[in-house]
Amino acid sequence: MGQTAEGVIEAVFSSLMFEENKASRPDIKRILNSKRVTDHHAIIPTMEIARADLAALPETERKILSLVANRLLCATGEKHLYETVKAEFSCNGHTFAVSGKSVTHNGWKSFEDAFKRSFKISGNQEEEKEEKKLPELSEGQAFDGVQTKVSEHFTSPPKHFTEDLLLSAMERAGAEDMGDDVERKGLGTPATRADIIEKLVKDGFCEA
Would you state the pLDDT for residue 129? Predict the structure, then answer.
């Protein structure tokens, strides 16, 4: 299966829009262990992708094929690495906290970014709220002449989950508290999460 997956990935590089990241070496072993699993493939392209006339496909079908191929590249791509910085500031007896994030190696997200550029897909709400990099700070640093003001605001309740946001939250649930050696993270699997939601609604634990 490992050799088959490598062949498919090579065909994807040659057939679709991911040529710019061809230098990336796929890490097949991270997602596949032929000693533990036999005939249990995920949905991935086949070698026919190298021989097919993709330009002749309807746009909707080409988008689906590209999405499936892209997820395979993301799953076997290099790790996405970033550095998170948290800081606390004291002002007039009050403590304020802030955090920032800077990417040190884009890794598999390069494939995701290439896919979005190809199909002109904008980022979701979570990506738009992504933390920005903080300026250089040092412990005990003081800031003079800072302009401040007190303002009054009204809070609003959190927005209701959409199906996509709920599935995404289930996928990431508790992931930060689990080690890298954990085989499965989150609630359920991609194949069972929708069924879990349906059962919760059916039994009255939540409303759709």
Answer: 59
